[in-house]
Specification:
- The complex is a heterotetramer, with two copies of chain A and two copies of chain B.
- Chain A has 13 helices and 18 strands.
- Chain A is elongated, with a radius of gyration of 26 Å.
- In chain B, helix 5 packs across helix 9, helix 6 runs parallel beside helix 7 and helix 7 packs parallel to helix 8.
- Classes of the chains: A alpha+beta, B alpha/beta.
- The interface between B and D is medium-sized, with 13 and 17 residues.
Chain lengths: ~375, ~290, ~290, ~375
């Protein structure tokens, strides 16, 4: 789960990481109140989970109340690459002497944590990594041993940060690592981490991705979840425990297992179609789950045909067949359904469907056959 | 022969008294697996359908001589259970649990590597392992597997593994062992571990490898194959059409920037002499051809 | 202004009672440096030409308020002496000792960085630092330096530093500070540290940087200069004709394979806008031109 | 100081690192005796400090006494790239299942130790680093914390070594790190580190460079020093405490300070000459040292002119001048001498020389002038 900047900064604050004084506002008046509280000049920042908000006019400096009013009014409701701005973060403007970069994430090939620190912040780290990889000090951290202050000090030295900033940054990195680990982040990134002309260091931005698998030990995440601005269908699927990702094509996909679902997308693509979604109903799905999946897909107007691709393992194919019939009885499914059913209890499942087959409910013997049929119906 | 587990492997089930543990544990026993004990703290002395339950792994191991453990516990308790298995003397651990926090996995993986170098963890979030006719630990349906070899299977995806087993079995082609390494970012056992074991197993004559987007394990495997593998490998990589930045169901299946794409993986495998197929069916057919020509 | 040390810097000499320590310590005092104490374990209570000697750095620091230490002890004892200085409250340490084992240096450097982040070590195996007219810690002849700025000098080589000082002084061009960082592989203070300090010092208007073959500090400095330096830098790098694989006198001056060549360093510096000169004389002349045009 | 393979293996043995059973021999009969003791087949290996001995016929397999006799006889006295073979290492031949690579050295940019481990050994690591850098697992080791068995185990995992070898290699790496650190090596390298078909691991080669600065705590190094096959002039210079490196040109160089000596070489090159040597007389050199330096240079028949470049600091120029006169009185210097004298007591020094100047003893006011004069004399 990606956090908004303001949520990231609030999360940082829990771990003692310094950020600019500021607060969130979802109206012009609230923005003015925050600005008066933190003191001018302030920066008015659109809260959207997409890059490039600065270029889109989503970040403005305001020197007085009138300017706050003006900018807050303009930015609220602004559409930035399809994301409508509903919240602002207002913070005291910072003078910047230097911009650094700091982050922690999982280093998959090494199965360790990877810290990245650079004296060249404020630009995309991918660009720095490409153009001048030596400007990034990488630190591989054994998850068992963690990061202590001594190692953090070696690291800020190696990164050649300005001397006045080193000890402050070393201490901040230890806190950021704590946030990353005990805070269960997939990513904790500060870009830029700034040094002000008076020699103090704080986070000017916050990019935090939380590991949803750790939700059980973070009741405080509930508030973040409430503000997740998601595709309505993704939201609906999530509530029903389905793993759904919306795509651009016309073939609605339902499969059991992430690998099979991905594979189904690929096969549809190979035979000339394109998928409207990824939907994994998971292992051991029953009739209810199957029916819910069909309803989610059915709410997508792009979908011209639904391809149900099941290989029964723990999931029993007879249960899947019952779910399909249940859904058909409960709601009007707008698109024809092509099914490929194999594996555990496939014979029973096919027998359940047999009496109901027609030109809107079709079975095919193999994945490839089913894909071809679905695509030809979608393109008809 | 088979790899990692066979008819002599004695297995305990951590979480045998839970719903899932009972279901899969008994199903594995019915398949013929030597399920010799269950472990549930506080339930020692009881039994599940005749299988004795112990309070700790150590007690179970001492009483039964088990070397493998099937860990079927919720995400919250999985890391502790895995480490208890290693500490208790188990050398092969299968963790099917989905949804373990990434930081728990990272710590557990490194704790095992640093403190218990003789222990192999399979998973987490994997379907388990089946050596057909001998031993089945996990959630794979035994009836889709065919004993006798000559094919070894290693896969990051559960359903695609079943599909592969099914297609081969239907053509009368058996499997030595089928290993599901799971779709999490930090798998305890990786492709190379399995490829090396299949390469060393005289009864395995060819290997099917099923990868997916995310990470670089397929690329590393390709490099290993190029240098070490003498047996034919057929491969399929799922996710050619996956968009970057979205987790495709598995926590590990995510394309980050230009890294982890299916195309890069397929290119690396092809360059290593692997037979790269574009869908599971094609991969199955290719394997049939290869086996028939052996 | 000057960097790192000035007329207010109180300096102790570790090893003042030894031959070298006495010679250089008294010479530095004669130059005007505030040499406030000596330290030699077991000789506390004595004095060297009126300078009180203490048994430990901590005692000397407590008695005198010294913040700098000039460490003049044999290689065998140098690491312990440096760490004693840091532990005793010293924040600026000059180590001129040549021949300290590389592993001792590596441990000492990292101990300082990890445990004493506020401490700066200059050297080992360096000529020291002179802020002309104010403070001279080390073995540089004070009479070749000219007070008043506007040039800062930083150098890996001792004699070339003297040469640079000499040429500038003869032309009437003074120096703010001249820092010899030394020719060992793990210098406590590097080019960037000094460049950053000169950049921040209002009286320094231009910097002369003298590098040599080996390592990549000049390349890193070039990168830093490109991004941060507003003042002109004139540079000379010794060792264009040095053969690979041989240590040219300094432990750090060695070309390994294609790494560490003078040409690569000169190219990097030139690309960063540095005035790269082909010999020390040319570098001196270039600096004269630059200062005259200020 | 570079060690011979046999010395490196003996050094490894001190730290418990397994090597093939073998011993050193400097005659054919000694070689036969070693071979009989370790058992056939054996490998007869030329001991030279230069690469490519295999291609030059310096490494041979011998299955019986006759073959040992034949190969030992051929290899002893062989000239390999200018190095005459005076010693052999005879060891039991090993069956090889896999070849790995392992080394420790100083990572200068990071000021840490750098471990390199690869499943692709037996070839030059530079080639692997170039062609397939991912095949090398790099480990950065904080010198303060060192390398423990847990980290070594993570490392062998990451390097994807064969499983049967991992624990053995992890334990060996801890020993090799101990050898590298407490043994004061600049480099400790095993290439190849082999896995035999019966599943055991040992070092098949040894490349060790000792840090001469640490000699004071290693009396056992004395024996290595005795066998250093050096340029005779380098040996003579070393005995006199001079830092001398022989080169190919005709201008003999004497300077005080490594930087100035390097710079002198550069300037001679710039004005069209080429140096016959690098010679740094060090700081604080006196008349004796100067005289010794002139004698060393004088023994080099390539030298056509001697360029003495002194910038007095601790070194006093009057002492240098006295040394020059002393040397001239003691031995016949074959080449003319060009001096550039500056710095501490330069006026006094020049005054000492003034009465003796002639066309074989010349002073010039600057380094560049002196270089030009020396080169024109060398090329005359």
């Amino acid at each position: 789960m990606d956090l908004f900047e303001y949520q990231g900064k609030q999360y940082f604050s829990r771990f003692g990481i310094a950020v600019s004084p500021g607060d969130v506002a979802d109206t012009v008046e609230a923005a003015v109140a925050v600005a008066e509280r933190v003191g001018f000049p302030v920066v008015v920042k659109a809260q959207v989970k997409v890059g490039g908000r600065g270029k889109a006019g989503g970040v403005k400096l305001a020197n007085d109340i009138d300017e706050v009013r003006l900018h807050a009014g303009n930015i609220l409701g602004l559409d930035i690459k399809g994301h409508v701005v509903r919240r602002l973060w207002i913070e005291r403007s910072s003078d910047i002497a230097k911009e650094y970069y700091a982050s922690f994430t999982l280093d998959r090939p090494h199965k360790t944590h990877l810290g990245m620190l650079s004296a060249q912040g404020g630009v995309e780290i991918e660009v720095v990594a490409e153009e001048n990889p030596d400007a990034i000090a990488f630190l591989s951290i054994d998850p068992v041993r963690g990061l202590d202050l001594g190692s953090a000090r070696r690291w800020v030295h190696e990164a050649e940060l300005d001397e006045v900033a080193r000890e402050q940054v070393a201490e901040l990195l230890v806190k950021l690592y704590d946030c990353y680990t005990t805070g269960d982040c997939d990513l904790a990134e500060i870009n830029p981490l700034i040094l002000t002309p008076d020699g103090t260091v704080h986070a000017l931005d916050a990019k935090v991705t939380l590991d949803e698998n750790a939700s059980f030990r973070h009741p405080e995440w509930e508030e973040y979840r409430a503000t997740e601005t998601e595709d309505p269908r993704e939201k609906m699927a999530k509530e029903k425990g389905l793993n759904y990702i919306g795509l651009d094509g016309s073939v609605g996909i339902i499969a059991n297992g992430a690998g099979l679902a991905m594979s189904t997308l690929d096969v549809v693509n190979q035979v000339g179609g394109s998928a409207a979604n990824f939907l994994d109903i998971g292992g051991g799905a029953n009739a209810d789950v199957m029916a819910a999946a069909l309803e989610v897909i059915n709410s997508d107007p792009k979908v011209k045909v639904i391809f149900v691709n099941i290989f029964g393992g723990i999931t029993r194919v007879d249960e899947v067949a019952k779910g399909v019939l249940e859904a058909l009885a409960r709601v009007t499914i707008n698109a024809p359904i092509v099914l490929r059913l194999d594996g555990t209890n496939a014979v029973e499942g096919r027998a359940i469907l047999a009496p109901h087959l027609n030109d809107r409910l079709i079975t095919e013997p193999t994945m490839l056959d089913a894909a071809r049929r679905a695509v030809s119906l979608a393109n008809a | 022969m088979s790899i990692f587990v066979d008819e002599n492997t004695k297995v305990i089930v951590q979480g045998l008294t839970g719903g899932q543990g009972r279901f899969h544990g008994l199903r594995n026993r019915d398949y013929g697996t030597q399920i010799v004990a269950g472990v549930t703290p506080g339930k020692g002395g009881s039994d599940v359908d005749g299988i004795a339950v112990f309070n700790s792994v150590r007690e179970a191991v001492e009483a039964t001589g088990a070397t493998a453990s099937f860990v079927v516990v919720p995400p919250k308790f999985a890391s502790a259970a895995i480490l208890e298995a290693a500490e208790g003397g188990i050398t092969f651990i299968v963790s099917i649990t989905e949804g373990i926090p990434a930081h728990d996995e990272a710590v557990t993986y490194n704790r095992l590597v640093e403190d218990y170098p003789g222990v192999r963890l399979l998973g987490p979030n994997c379907p388990g392992i089946i050596s057909p006719g001998k031993c089945n630990i996990g959630i794979t349906s035994g009836d889709i597997a065919l004993p006798g070899g000559p094919v070894g299977i290693v896969s990051r995806s559960g359903t695609l593994t079943y599909q592969a087993l099914h297609e081969l079995s239907q053509q009368g082609i058996g499997q030595t062992t089928c290993v599901g390494i799971g779709g999490d970012p930090v798998p305890g056992t990786n492709f190379i571990d399995c490829l090396a074991a299949f390469e060393a197993d005289p009864e395995t004559k060819a290997v099917m490898m099923i990868g997916e987007i995310g990470g670089s394990e397929e690329e590393r495997a390709a490099e290993w194959i190029k240098r070490n593998m003498t047996k034919p490998v057929v491969s399929y990589v799922a996710g050619v059409t996956a968009p970057p930045g979205r987790k495709m169901g598995h926590a590990g299946a995510i394309i980050s920037g230009s890294k982890g794409t299916a195309q890069a993986k397929m290119d690396a495998l092809a360059a290593a002499g692997v037979h790269v197929c574009l869908n599971p069916t094609e991969a199955g057919q290719k394997m049939v051809e290869i086996v028939q020509a052996l």
